[in-house]
Amino acid sequence: MEVCMKDTLRALRQRKNVTQESLAKHLGITPQSVGKWERGEGFPDITLLPAIALYFGVTVDELLNVDRVRIDEKIKAYQDESHRLKNAGDNEKNRALWENAYAEFPNDCRVLFGLMFALNRDAVYPCPKEDAERIIMLGERILAESKDSRLREETVQKLCYVYESIGDRENALKYADMGGSMFTTRDDLRCHVLKGEEGLKESQEYLRMLILLAELTASSMIHKVDHTPEEAIAAYRFGIDLWKLLYSDGNIGFEANNLSRSYAEIAYQYAILKDTEGVLENLGEAARYAVMAATMGERKYTAPMVNRLIYNPEESTKNYKGNACNLRLNHMEWKVYDFVRENVRFKTIEERLKKYAE
Q1: Residues 79, 317: contact at Cβ < 8 Å?
Q2: What number is the average pLDDT over the span 17-23?
């Protein structure tokens, strides 16, 4: 267990309103030594710890922040187990995990956020009333108590989504307006500042996320107003084209999941049109990318615009059990496909998906 006293020592000294020089004189050491301790560049001789603790009226454990370290280690263990469960798509166990963590640490903002995220991990729309109320309570506590900028940003996003889900447009817009402009994001500013290989990698990851946002925005547009199947097809093809432009050599990694989903959505629109060829062609592509997603391991991207990035399946999370092949099989059960269900190509696609489904 790693202990750290630099922040605690500074806080104790400031609370008692004493200078580094005064503390150093009391201990019979140089002020420079105290300065190094508070910067984390050194550590007092173990024989000095009781004297320092006595001077400030605390225990040695409190001085060393041992309780805080133990708490951090426990919460890190919860976070690691949560990632494992999200990687497996086990939402039920993930929620139970954070309920336990919340019972143990009801005032730690990291735990509040873990539970808030787990409550709506199934992405049920609209969010169930009881869960929505808890998410809002937890989120507002985080914003009131946490100074962690990343935690606050993600909390604002979650609150916006939840309020929108339950039809509270006023509060949804309130939290939407708390987000930053896309031209002043942390990611954009970091890309501007960082240079060399570090800056190149950061820029490639930011470009990947911008394309993801463009894809999601395009597909969401068709849900704003009534749309024709042709308009929906155009929106989904827009996202597909962007991904293929980014991964120009076909080494597409995680985005095989996104392409599989988009081709399945296009197939659905063709099913509405009763276009057999459109359905089968796009279900075939959906299946091809689903199998790719289900079978690929860790790999380095090789296309020029992403060649500093690596895909590791262990780092990804999902909100469903099984893999992309399971999702496509469930999709193909929809009644809209009944008119092609007996088609040989349709059956062949099903069999291929079943071979790789979990």
Answers
A1: no
A2: 90
Q: Which two tokens stand for residue 272?
A: 């509405």
b vs e for 174-208, b when ≥16 Cβ sit within 10 Å of the residue's Cβ?
ebbeeeeeeeebeebeebeeeeeeeeebbbbbbbb
- How much is the CA Rg of the chain, to the nearest whole Å? 26
167-200 residue pLDDT tens: 999 999 999 999 888 888 899 999 999 999 999 9
- The model carries a pTM of 0.78
Gap between the terminal Cα atoms of the chain: 39
pLDDT at 157: 93
Q: Which two tokens mark 92?
A: 């039920």
Closest CA to 356 of 327, 320, 332, 316: 327
Helix extents (H) in 120-255: 129-145, 149-165, 169-176, 186-193, 196-221, 229-246
Bond into 126 cis (ω within 30): yes
- In the DSSP assignment, the letter for residue 299 is E
Query: What is the DSSP code string of 25-85?
Result: HHHTS-HHHHHHHHHTS----GGGHHHHHHHHT--HHHHTTHHHHHHHHHHHHHHHHHHHH
Tokens 């985005």 identify what position?
255
**pLDDT tens-place string over residues 133-150:** 999 999 999 999 998 999
DSSP string, 192-225: HH--HHHHHHHHHHHHHHHHHHHHHHHHHHTTTS
308 and 300 in contact (C-beta within 8 Å)? no
CA distance 84 to 115: 15
Phi, psi (deg, nearest 5) at residue 299: -155, 155
